[in-house]
Amino acid sequence: MYLLAQDTLNGAEGKITVTRDGRITEICGMKKIKTVAGIQTSDMKTIGTRTVQKKANGVTQTGTGNVYFGSNGSNLFTDMLLQYINTGVMETFDITITNNDPTASVGDQVMGYYGCMLTGEIPLSILNDDEAMLNYDFNFSYTKVNRLKAFSDPVNLGN
Hints:
The protein is mostly beta strands. Helix content is 10%, strand content 47%. Strand 5 and strand 6 (108-119) form a beta hairpin.
């Protein structure tokens, strides 16, 4: 039994929304976004064995993405950065990422990321004569995640 190619997901099919100050904005101009959770562990050694065991002791929750410069997503990040520069208040926001490929039988997945905060560098201005479409990478962290809707199992499988 195996997954059929028709049920693999097209990475461009979906949407991203940002909730900021209670306002929900669908982000256009996003090239990619990826969230990860990294399990942190500690080594555990004991007399009587040379085996080094691992014990989970935390998780780091981060995301990366790429956005076209001048899009509403880029403008949103610039606004947040300028607010921090001018007031010292770093705003948090929530992101919802929906995978929705209508050609796949697995349906949608909707993930919510809460308490997001921009990290790293956000460009305020860009000029580059080698680039026809300006874009930049960005980073963020989040404090909570929920799966709001899960994919279903594929309708058909190969055998």
